[in-house]
Structure formats: structure tokens, C-alpha cells
Amino acid sequence: MADLTPCEPFYISAACSRSHATAARPQDGLVAFASGHLNTTSAGVHRTLPGHKGDVTALDFVQSSGKSRYLVSGDATGTVRVWKEQDNDKWSTLATFAGHKGSISAVQGLQLDADQLLILSGGSDSTVCTWRVTENGHDNLDEWKDSARVRFDQIARLTSVDQTQFRKVLSLEGHTDWVRSLSFITPIPAGSPTASTSAAYDIAPGEVLLASGSQDHYIRLWRVSRRIRSDDELATPAANGDEMDELDAALAAVEDAAELRVKAHDFSVDGEGDFSCASEAVLLGHDAWVTGLNWAPADETGSPRLELLSASADRSMILWSPVSAGAAALPDSKPLSSRSAPSSHASVWTSQHRFGEFTSSTNLGFFGALWGQAGRTVLANGWGGSWHVWKLEKETGREEWRPQVATTGHLGAVRQVAWEGEGEYLLSASHDMSARLHAPWRRAVGGESVETWHVENGQLMSLSVGAELGRPQIHGYPLASIAFTSAAKRLQFVSGADEKIIRVFDTPRLWVQTLKTLSGVDAGDAVGSCASSASEERKADVLAEQESRPMAANIPPLGLSNRAVASPDEAAQLAPASTDVFDEILPFNFTVSDHPPFEEQLLGSMLWPEVDKIYGHPFELVSVASAHAAPIIASACKATAPDHALVRLHSTENWQPVGVPLEGHALTITKLAFSPPTKVGTDADRWLLSVSRDRTWNVFERASSDASDHTYRRAATLKSHARIIWDGCWAVDASFFATASRDKTVKIWSSGNWQCAATLRFEEAATSVAATMSPDGQNHVLAVGLENGQIHLFLSADSTNWLPSRILDNDVAHVRTVSTLAFCPAAKITGRVRLASGSEDHSIRIFDIPA
Q1: Which architecture does CATH list for 618-850?
Q2: Which positions does the entry assign to WD repeats (predicted)?
Q3: pTM (2 d.p.)
């Protein structure tokens, strides 16, 4: 029987969708964000919530007086789900409903009482649906047509609600382009003896401020206050909404449309009285679309804090607050919390702090503008899916906003993951046109040793909380496959993409230094790179090679090739060492920090130089594989005819072709794999396995027993499956290989006689497979990834009788097709095997599995 005991991944890498559909919970710092088909939570991703059938497009925590225990999410299929947090830190679906004919654009929830929620969902079908949700189910309350929140038109609309009925009461004109975000300040309860917390700006009890952000680059503030009618007004019936619209239309016909109309708009709410709404201020500070607005959370007393955070497509966030007109003209270096001015003075809204990527030309915009814990942290998600975090820290008597390490991940389907030969770090390739490295961050915290996983521009470093430590390749085409060139060359890899070219990358010196500082892995050490018996001359050559490595690389304008930009001697002139906080996030900073790189550094100074290109394939690359001991790589491209369904071999010493292309398939070859050494540690790379869309596999054998001869010839072939074969892998001792097919089976084939030894059947198509040995060396371990996102593990002592060991279901594994699996070749964990997986749900996960 398979073990269904939860096996949580200790590392999850996932990017945030390009959307304002994110929300923070300031009480405990938990952040939820949409990531493809995921809802991902925590600072450092620690849980994903599966269930949606389409990409998640909107989410929000339900507003409540205390800690919110409910989360609302909507997806591209029009489905809305309500999640409830259980006492054991688990989340379960409380309700699911569909009332839209298009994608969900916005969701919001209010907690009416202890067990009753009011949910609002807006869709691209120009409707807003309201739902009352209880522990026992949900009811559809109403449908509100023509919503500006959903349609993003140029008018902000105010609507009255009595929990079951909605009525439009006012339209606020002013923006000249789509309104993308709205945010109300926390209202002061009516009857409260205090006004606002700002001495420079008054908000009376019962008044609220509404901020609206638009694609016209402006932020507008609107004040809504209760209106006391005079005796004459009481004798005259108030104009209804239609009459107000006619009056606005008449005024617009005679006034300049660009002129700001500051007159107050009056409206009434049944049972609540009369109100007035007027334009309060217009804030201009962004140079592109305003994509997110959020008022600061209330203070300890529940009073609003007059601080507004805005995000923009110009790669910046701005913190706005009011100051007296006199103070606005004078520079003030005091922290915001200590600024004050007489309330009798006129007030202006000013930019108190600006956050952003002022030196990056490749990250196109911010979304979100979220507040973190107690309003002392601010967050935004970037165009590339990364999170950007700044924290207000006290230093030398002053408070400074300092950048923090944040999580990130791939923004497209993950096509392949590959461990470095000694299992210290992981390389991943994705359709988001990037290759990323993940490795452990090892450091001492409070006298204790801590290890967490982070990801860096193309490299992986080990840290307990998920983040990125390296990104060696940022490309112009979707990446399909990657491989380290050999176990010995752990600092060199090749990649194939939709451009028909194989590219070769060598690590820069900065990455070697970063890996040693953050992970404790001395990959570039001369002694570690040479056997103890190597001559002193050889060791000197290796050391000279490491010293001559360029410091970093960049991508020239209109180019696709990473180019070395600095020798070690030039580094000090290009980017001199500095302790300034701003210099720390410059793209070219060759000083190794004591923390993983920020996104700006990943984009700028963590690229690997490209050292060569390999040509020859006529169509898009699909698979590249590296031999274990021999200096060769194999590659294959898309094919619709036998003439193109070839395997090409190249030498990693001079990058020239080896032998003639290997024939045998009629359609695209989907995976290539060289056989590892046998049990006695010899005969590595004797066979080369290829599997194809034509439902066949081929085994090519080395033409000579002499390991110096790197030519191959076909030794066996078989049409083995009824549907496409997606993946194939060898056992760690080359005693068998496994093939995974769309026909919902995985078949085990014995080496030498090439007969089918076992067949494993599943309810879904098998899309990926990987094999290793159990820690005690007694059993083979086989991992199978399925089209539905699950991962199944099996054990066998003889490769014929396979027993189910464990199932990683959608709660801990993936929610879409598992596209790649890889066991760590040298996991240093007693009693466990380490498995990395990648999926079309855009995420990478690493598990330590008892086996």
C-alpha cells in the first residue's frame, strides 16, 4: 500500500502572476499570491492551495476585526473559491461557486458575523456577483451590472449596500484612462472622540478617503463625509441618481474636460442619511500606469494612518503622506512618525519615500503595493514574477527603508531540472526564457546553524525559505532543456531553446565566490578540482583558470548572447566596493553580500558568460543530455519526418560533431539519457537511450569497448507504448531503464536483453520518470510524475516487482502536469532521498522523502 502520510516539500519556488490580485494580512505577515494555478502563501513559500482549474487571477483575505481565517480566490474560468484556515495551519475549501461567464477580475470578502461572510466577485463579463457564505453553504444574493471596478472605465462609482441590495448613488469623473485600483482608508467610527492620527491632516469620525489609481498616471483622492441638510434643503427633495447624471452631462458639455471639477457631489443612502463626496487631491509622481494602491493599516487604537502606498509600471513604489504646506517646502530628515505640523495649516500630499529599480531596464513594472507587518514592511510584485520587499529598520538613531531578500520563481512552465554532479545545487529551465540556479544558504542565526534554500540568476543555493540565488541565462526564446556538461564540469552547462542553437555557459568568478560565501561550497577551489595525485603543475593550471574567469556577464542591446563584461582587475573600476545601501542593489556590484542577491542583482550581475554555440539542428531544440564520464553531449530537435528525428553528438572539448547523426526515429525525440556506471563503477556511458513521440525507444551502444571512442550505433529498438513516450531514465546502476507514456503506463526494460520486466499502470498519463537507490542500497526507487500533478513512488529489489511506496498528491506536489523529475545524486540526508520536480504550474519543489 502506498503511504499517504504527508511529505511536505522543504523548498518551493514559484513566481507571482502579473496582476494586482494580491493581498497581505498585516497581523502576522502572511502573504497570499496568485501563481499560475497556485495560491501560494508565506514569506518564503511554504504552502500551496490546489483546486482551481484555470489560472488564478484574483484573491483577497476576508476583512475582519481580528486575524482573517478566510481567503477568497477567483480564476480565469469564472470560478470563485472560499478557503478557511484550520487550527493545524491547513487550508480547506469552504465554498465554490460560479456566477461569471468570463475571467474573475476582482474579489473581496467581509466577515458579517462569527460564521457568515459576504463575498463579492467581479468579472470580465461586466458583472459583480454577491454571495453570502456560511459554514453550511452559500447563497447567490444579487448581481450588479455595469461595474467600474470590473470594467476599469474612467469613472469611480460609489454604491450603497444593505448586505443584499446594491444601488448606484454616484459617479466620480476625473480620470482620463482606465481606473486600475481603488482603496478606502480605515474609517474612524462615528462618535469617536479622536480625529485622524496625522496632525497635518484632519479626518473626522464617519469620514473616509477613497484613493483611485489610473492608467493616466494620476492618483486621485476623494473625501466622503456626512452632510447635514439646512432647513431649506430639507424642504426640497434631493435629486435622484438619474438627475445627477443628467446634471453632470450638462456640465461636462460646457466645461473643459481636462479641468478638475472640485465641487462636492451630494447623495443619499436609504436609512443612513445624506453624504457628500468631493475631490480632495491629485497626486502626480509616477511616469506610467498606477497599478496598485493601499492605505497603511490602522494603528494600535484602530485609527487610520494617513500613509498611502502606490505601485506603478515605471518600476517604482511611492509612499505618500500629508504635511503642512509650510513643512512641504522645507527638507525634513526626521522619520515620518516624528513629523508634525499645526492642524490649522493648509496640507499637501507629498512623496515621503520612493522605492524601486532605478537602474534596471529589463523589469517592466510593479504591481500590488502591499503593506506588511504593522506597516513597517512594504511589498510589490514585479513584471518578472519576483517579490520586492523593503523594511523600515532603525539604524544609528534613524529609521531607514532597507531592501530585503524575497521569494521568486519561474513565470512559465518548468521544462527541466538538473542537479549538479555532487548534488549541491539545482539548475532549472523554463518557458519564461530563463535558467535559474537554486542552492542552500547556510549561515549562523542566534548561535545556531541554519540552512534555507534560495534561487540565484540561473543557480540554486540552499536555504530553508524559498528564494532565488542565481539566474545564469535570460533568453529571448522559451528554454526546453538543460544539462551540466559532466559531473566534473560542475560549473559549465548547455541549454537548448526554440531557436535551434545549443548554447554553452561557464560560471563567472562572482558566482563561485557567492556559492562559497552563502552555501559553503568551494566549487572553484584548485585542490577540490584536482585529484590528490595530480601534479603541482596541473593544480597551478586549474588555479590560473579560476583566476582568469570573468567577474560577470551582461546581455548587449538587441542581443541574445551573454557577454563577459569584466576581468577581476576591471571590476574595481566598474563597481568599486561600497557600503552604501543604494549601491548595494546596483546591477554591477561585484562585492559578495552576506545574503542572497536581490532581483536587481540577479538580472544584472549574476548572468553566466556564454562561451560557445553549437549549430546543426534545423528545428527547435527539445532535449540535450550530457555523458557521465565521456566529454560528449547528445541533442535532438522537433521533427515531423525521419530525416530530422536524429540524435547529434558533440564533443565538450572542442564543441565539434562526433561521428554521424544517429537515426532510428520517425518523429520528435522527447528525451535523451546516457547510462550511468554499473555497480562496479565501470562502463559509464555505454548506452544512450532515446524516446520519441513515435511511441518507440532506441538504445544506442558505444561502437567500441575503448572509452576513448565516442561514436555510437543502434543496439535495440522497440515500439513499446500505445501513445507518445514522454520521458525515459536509467537506473543508477544501469541494470534497467524506464519509459513513461501518455498511454498511462510506465514500463521497466532490462539491460542487455531489452525485455519488458514490469509495467506500472495509472489513472492519468505518465509524463516524467526518475530513478535512484534507497539510502540503504537495498532497493531501487522509482518516481513517476503524472499529468494531474501527482508524484508516485515505488520500491523494488530486483526491478521486476515494484511495490507502491508513497503518493505525493496535489496538496503537496503539483496541480498541473509534472514535466520533469530528478533525484539528487548525493543527498547527505540519512534515511531519505531528495527529489526535485518541475511542472507546468510554473513551480519547482524539492522533497526529502523517507525511502
Answers
A1: 7 Propeller (2.130)
A2: 49-93, 407-437, 718-750
A3: 0.82
